[in-house]
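To: structure subgroup
Subject: Chain for Friday's discussion

All,

I'm putting the inputs and outputs inline so they're searchable in the archive.
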Amino acid sequence: MEQLGELIRTLRKAQKLSQQALAQRYGMSRATISGIENNTISEIGLRKVEAILNGFGYELTAIPVRAQRPTLDALQKANFHD
């Protein structure tokens, strides 16, 4: 969420929008926008974040985390047990 908040802040400032203006655009409070941007809001619906991002021309997506490559020790142990 922290990176999303930073992105939203950057996009908002690039369009010279205040937090209040952005909040009004999406039917939220200024405090909610501030909480999103500063990662201090306890719960925020994904639909709200998605709506804001879509408004800036971004899409909220989920991508798989890259599998961590095994270390040399792990490979040697695996080969030892085979």
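Points worth raising on Friday:
The first helix runs from residue 2 to 14.
The mean pLDDT is 87.

D.
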